Amino acid sequence: MIFIIKLNNRDFQWEEGMTVEDIMKIKKFSYSRIIVKVNDKHIEQEDYAKTVVNDGDDVKMIHLLAGG
Questions:
Q1: What Cα–Cα distance (Å) separates residue 32 from each residue in 3, 24, 56, 57, 66?
Q2: What is the spatial distance between Cα 63 and Cα 56, in angstroms, rounded to a whole number?
Q3: What is d(CA 48, CA 43) in angstroms, rounded to the nearest whole number?
Q4: How many CB atoms neighbour CB 53 within 10 A?
């Protein structure tokens, strides 16, 4: 059975026990400044490794850009 979450409004295959940190590694997100929300709840960087993502969750990973 395949499970899906939404990652930045796109379907992303999910595996049981997957954390925010796991998703970032799979997607190769290594930005120094990124905002992460799971179901509109802000996740702090120190919580990435322990925040488990569940089937059907809506995950947003937004890279912050600086400009002038």
A1: 29, 12, 27, 24, 12
A2: 22
A3: 7
A4: 23
pLDDT digit string, tens, across residues 25-53: 999 987 778 999 999 999 999 999 999 99
Instruction: Quote the CA–CA distance of 5 and 68 in Å, as a whole number.
Output: 35
Question: What's the whole-model pTM score?
Answer: 0.86
Distances (CA, A) of 9 to 29, 46, 66, 67: 16, 24, 23, 25
- 41: exposed, middle or buried (C-beta count within 10 Å: 0-12, 13-18, 19+)? exposed
